[in-house]
What does this fold into?
Amino acid sequence: MPFDWSWFWPELWVSIEQTLYMVGVSLVFAILIGIPLGVILVVTREGGILEQKIVFTVLSTIINIFRSIPFIILVVAIIPFTRWVVGTATGTTAAIVPLVLFTAPYIGRLVENSLLEVDKGVIEVAQAMGATPWQIIWRFLLPEALGSIIMSLTIATIGLIGATAMAGAVGAGGSATWRSLTVTSSFKPKCRSSPSCCWSFLSKSSKPSGITSRKSCGEDDRTPCRLIRRPTKAYRVGFTGFSVL
Amino acid sequence: MIVFQDVRKVYGKGKAKRVEALKGINLHVKKGEIFGVIGFSGAGKSTLLRCVNLLERPTSGKVIVDGVDLLSLSPKELRKQRKKIGMIFQHFNLLHSKTVFGNVAMPLIIEGRPKHEIEKKVNQLLSFVGLEDKANQYPEQLSGGQKQRVGIARALATDPHILLCDEATSALDPDTTRSVLNLLKKVRDELGITILMITHEMNVIRDACDRVAVLEDGVIVEEDTVLNVFTEPKTEIARNFVRTVLNDSVPPTVREWIQRSRSENSNRRLFRIIFKGAATNEPLLSNTAKRFPVDLNILHGTITEMQGIPFGNLLVDVTGDREAIEQAVQYMQSQEVIIKEVADDAI
Ligand SMILES: Nc1ncnc2c1ncn2[C@@H]1O[C@H](COP(=O)(O)OP(=O)(O)OP(=O)(O)O)[C@@H](O)[C@H]1O
Ligand SMILES: [Mg+2]
It folds into this structure.
């Protein structure tokens, strides 16, 4: 069957736009939350300039919990919260909420690492100069770690893009949808939107793509799925994102 | 200027981890002097220095700087006091993200000084340390000696009364060390800043300090003027440090010869003669030989200079009859030299 290109480019364009929107907005929020998070982790830890054991332990634990939740589960788990924040649990904007909650702790950890790499001597210099804790953070720690932080943010962005692909789970559009659309029209996918695809894909992600989902889906289903797709490359990028974490 | 009263510092809690880094330090650094603290690695030198600006809080005791009891201050007051205490480090601790200018300007920015004032002060400081032309370079582009100069300029930015130096020259080669030490002396001479420096190199003490304390295992075991410690070290550790720069150990061939010839002639005795200052200008040995019926034979010796004072250390073999040797020694003692008999096996 000849491939129908008439819808291809507009769809591609739309999905690129959606992806950029999701990545962009989520990244901004995730950075706004993540960097302060990283800073707090560094200054409150034992031996930090504002040592606060309780704050550190609590924050660190929360971050660990968030980091250990696979994105797709996080998406589902926080649906009520998402609905409360943006009024709906599906769509591109709704996807931003889990994306932020997923990326911010990650950025927090990365920034923490970047800041910990800053030579202890620099902090000592700052203290010997009579700098306030705020000045130490703002004038010494962050500028000295800037290069490393930017690198961390690049890594976080890649993870975020991967997660965006999975955000198709809440009908976020973007690259995930686009992939499935192409797949739908050219290969007649046998996949219906069903959470089971998603779960089986999650649990058996090591298997070749599509095998599990094919079994669980109806034969002649041509409707472009809007919710759950078969595991395309984009999903695997998402997984690379996970494993980086 | 800097007074330590029974300062103790214990690191770690629990028996296993407990390290007593300072065990009751009493110290008095006077205004305008360059005071050195020497000790082996782990003796507690850095801890001691860091107690002066409370980068490390003593477990007990008092630290009084400029008449202010630092331990009684609030964090805010402490920050204010710290601005009067400059500090430089072994590894310079410059900000890599800032130029030389930015590094030196940092303490002033922190103080919230106006921009034109900062610019003027920084340029003045850079020319003081001889780095006018490097203002816009980054620390990576500088040599070790230049980095330390930046460190010094930065430490001086807030017009401190005291400069603390933590192994400031330990990462530098001998020539650079000398030029940095000269700069530190200039800091003291021209700006009247009191300097407390710690080091494990005795040549740094010799070249720069007025007084020195020897720190061993958290205790000051010896404290005196540099000249006195060099000429008459009282403790074994001080003697060993002095030996690292003044080689007064006798070469094996000479030692062998001494031991051989001593067993042949009982009328000879060995003395170590230490001259300092004006005494080195007098022809002491030849005077002695003229006055008394003794022969003097120099077996080994070194002559150096400390703070412009010449200082010699000779191993002299004195031959003659008992009486004459006694008289010769007494005469030499009256000539402001230190003279000590050296036992055979202690050469
Ligand atoms: N933060 C710390 N925690 C625990 N122990 C410490 C700490 N800092 C120093 N010590 C211990 O205190 C002792 C003195 O350390 P200090 O750094 O003052 O020695 P130092 O004389 O400066 O040695 P070096 O010449 O190697 O710098 C050492 O036994 C060291 O292990
Ligand atoms: Mg040290």
Observations:
- The radius of gyration of chain A is 21 Å.
- Chain A is about 75% helix and 0% strand.
- The pocket of adenosine-5'-triphosphate (ligand 1) is lined by residues B 11-12, 19, 21, 39, 41-47, 200 (CB under 6 Å).
- Chain A touches chain B at residues 119, 121-122, 124-125, 127-132, 135, 139-140, 143-144, 146-147 (CB under 8 Å).
